[in-house]
Design brief:
Length: 320
């Protein structure tokens, strides 16, 4: 099984990204031949500040490596280090119906928000198809927001295969089971764009301030409280053991609980969960050459695979 997924370097990763995507990507590296890459060309459709983009790329590489991506198991690289990807994207774009792209929800959502689209935003799914098809991936683990993009990839691959003969492996998406939707500090879905996220690598005072800012109601201490309606409980249960979650549930229901107690426990549990990763991240951050080497080796390996697929596609359509 060949697995591929891309991560946009669009800001600091948060607990929702961790439970909804990263943790599962890392588990999958033991289940097949995994290719994970930093989708920096895709990020250019939204991040237009070069210094910021450079920083995000570095951050996402550090985050994934610190959280357990093992470069000896998974091939880890930057999309922009694989020149075969944009070249393949062009070949694909010549068989992609406009209507297929016009129907994409993520594109339509951005239009609806009043964003004036550039061609990159419109062609985003074609570049994504090139990412996937270039390594002959069978399985693409993504969040459900990306499901349609993988379906578009399948359509494009089949269209090309029908027109020019069997060239591409037609991939399947694997929708990552949502860890429920992880709620943010205001109870809405945690998202960078809502400003309600808790960063994976926050610690000390910064983490304390963020957790203390989780919105709770003003019920008196002695009142019984509904745990399922409480933002602190809903985050705590994602990280606590079953037994501990049951104990907190009891304490909420019984009354006499100060929300600050549950918040303190949430901080402690995040410290326990991410302590190792934070230390690894600090250590790696001091050795940028190690990161460069990992990405360089990954890119070499990915280019080897990509060159073969591209040659096949060029030959199929007569550019050989
Ligand atoms: P954001 O909404 O912060 O911009 P992204 O859209 O970049 O996050 O998310 C990348 C991946 O992380 C998604 O495909 C999804 O799998 C996962 N993810 C993001 N936010 C959450 C959340 N609140 N709960 C569960 N998974 C999430
Ligand atoms: N569009 C994906 C996201 O925003 C990132 C991505 C780019 C990707 N290319 C990909 C994911 C190829 C899976 C496969 O999350």
């Amino acid at each position: 099984m060949r697995i591929l997924s891309g991560i946009q370097p669009s800001g600091k990763l948060h607990l929702g990204n961790y439970l909804g995507a990263i943790k599962q990507h890392i588990e999958l590296q033991d289940k097949g031949e995994a290719f994970y890459f930093i989708a920096d060309f895709h990020a250019l459709t939204t991040v237009k500040d070069p210094a910021l983009l450079r920083e995000h790329i570095k951050d996402v590489a550090l985050d994934y490596l610190a959280l357990g991506l093992d470069p000896s198991k998974a091939t880890f690289y930057r999309q922009s280090d694989i020149p075969q990807v944009p070249e393949l994207a062009w070949l694909l774009t010549t068989v992609t119906p406009m209507g297929l792209l016009e129907r994409c929800h993520s594109y339509k959502d951005k239009l609806a928000k009043g964003i004036s689209p550039d061609h990159g935003l419109f062609a985003y799914p074609v570049l994504m198809a090139a990412d996937i098809l270039i390594v002959d991936a069978n399985v693409v683990p993504v969040g459900k927001d990306q499901k349609q993009h993988v379906e578009v990839t399948r359509d494009i691959a089949m269209k090309f295969n029908n027109l020019y003969g069997e060239t591409f492996v037609v991939p399947e998406e694997r929708i990552l089971p949502e860890a429920g939707v992880v709620p943010g500090i205001d109870g809405q879905k945690m998202s960078k764009s809502y400003g309600n996220d808790i960063g994976i690598f926050l610690e000390g005072k910064a983490l304390r301030e963020r957790v203390m800012a989780i919105v709770t109601d003003s019920a008196p201490v002695e009142a019984p409280k509904d745990p399922d309606a409480n933002n602190v409980f809903n985050l705590l249960k994602l990280f606590a053991s079953k037994e501990e979650t049951a104990e907190w549930r009891e304490r909420f229901l019984k009354g006499g609980l100060k929300y600050s107690e549950a918040k303190k426990r949430l901080i402690a549990i995040l410290d326990e969960t991410f302590h190792g990763a934070r230390e690894r991240r600090k250590d790696l951050a001091k050795r940028p050459d190690v990161i460069q080497d990992i990405l360089k080796t990954g890119a070499e390996r990915a280019r080897g695979v990509a060159a073969k697929t591209l040659a096949r596609a060029r030959q199929a359509c007569g550019i050989d």
